[in-house]
Amino acid sequence: MNAAGVRMVVTRARSRGTGASLRRRGEKAAPLRSGEAAAGSAAPEGLLWDSAISEDGRAPAPCPAWMSAGLARGGFSQTPKAPREERKSYSPVKRRRKAQRLSVAYEASEGEGGEGAEHLQAPSWQPQDWRQQLDNIRTMRSGKDAPVDQLGAEHCFDPSASPKVRRYQVLLSLMLSSQTKDQVTAGAMQRLRARGLTVDSILQTDDSTLGALIYPVGFWRSKVKYIKQTSAILQQRYDGDIPASVAELVALPGVGPKMAHLAMAVAWGTVSGIAVDTHVHRIANRLRWTKKATKSPEETRRALEEWLPRELWSEINGLLVGFGQQTCLPIRPRCQACLNRALCPAARGL
């Protein structure tokens, strides 16, 4: 066969091909059609040579010189090209990726436990020695003989009144207690209750009479106005009762966050937050119970609620208020009589 009359196609075998099929040495050749014959020796390993004779009478494309020389020496095998309809189609083979192992830690919910469970807890700041300081304050307050223990808001309402009236009296006593000693607040509440302390009775009392009844509480003129405005709102919107949420309580004229949290605790029996007055604010800063010094009772409340266990929120107000009334005074605190004198940063600085 003339080398010039043969069209050669070279397919190079690849180690990881996805669409080519190669015949290597030792594999059985495809059957030939009539009039075609294989010639030459076997192809070198890794190469497959196919040939096709022009059937339309035109001269096939000339072979390169190196191909012609190889055919003349009989160094390559010539295999006819299979018809298009007989060729096998091959789809690419998808290689599976190696799976990566992931380690997942789950936070155990309440009641869950066991070996191997990872508990993810964010570290929380707590003041140094605060539990020992709190136990010492409990010991010093065990007598329950401070003014707040007998004259606080939980002692100023009429126990024989209806629940709605009792809640109103609790709120009124808290409004009077701002910037006022407990003894003065208790005296004003006794005078008001003697006239029948209800929403209707307060609204029927003129301002001058109401001022005389609550005097000498701090800021008594402003409190007369606030009491009248709040009582009117309670009558119109709450049927004479008080709101049952902090947000609604602080919206009332003359009611601040401390009063709202105490009203929720005393009137509704719900712990909504820590009630912080001037005593709690002062003592918390002296004991360094806040990350940094705070400038207002409301700022102190937020700082305490960040770390103090919630089960202690209801106790902390009465405990620290009485401690501030008897021992940790605003001026000339009685540090020598305090069990925390070795643990209190403020006492060490004196």
UniProtKB/TrEMBL annotation:
Residues 176-326 form the HhH-GPD domain. InterPro entries: DNA_glycosylase, Endonuclease-III-like_CS2, Endonuclease3_FeS-loop_motif, Endouclease-III_FeS-bd_BS, HhH-GPD_domain, HhH_base_excis_C, HhH_motif, NTH1. The keyword Mitochondrion applies. SMART domains: ENDO3c (SM00478), FES (SM00525). Residues 34-43 have a biased composition (Low complexity). PANTHER family: ENDONUCLEASE III-LIKE PROTEIN 1. This is Endonuclease III-like protein 1. It comes from Bos taurus.
